[in-house]
Predict the structure.
Amino acid sequence: MEGIGVEDTRQRFTVDIRILAEKKKSSYCTARVKGFPVTETCEDFRKEVQNILPGTHDETNIPSSSITEKIDDYIHSLKERHGESGYQPYQYKLWAEMLALGSHKSQEEPPMLPIFRNKIAKKTQPAASSSTSTMGTSVPGNSRSEILRQLRELNELKQMDVLTDEEFADKKKVLLNDLN
């Protein structure tokens, strides 16, 4: 009776595996695997993933240039439609990536994300009033808290690699100047 009726008694689980794109860390897909075995080590887990989802360990998952071209086309289209509305380059980029990946459908309405609720504040003081800003005036509470909120959102965008270090520094400088 050797080998007959022997059953795998290890527990099995349903696992959602998030696979990051190698070049765009903000792009990923999710694979749901049913009946995934319990493993002893991380290396065993990695081997099981590679056995179940071939292609996760080789170069074939690098985003193709066609996706990059698609994103660029979306950015161009969005800028044509919304050029006068004050969206920032990183907002167009994020919106275009969401359209290309299918996580957002509309080119007319922006995604329902905090960074699209309010556009980044621009310096609204005219140049002639710069002498009055040295008199010790302060930003009203609501404006100050709004600018601080935008700084937090800006930091989140930088951490998600939506903004480059240079873009982040430029936007941060504008917002900090608004506080003075």
Observations:
- The CA atoms of residues 72 and 169 lie 24 Å apart.
- The first helix runs from residue 42 to 52.
- Strands lie at 12-20, 28-37.
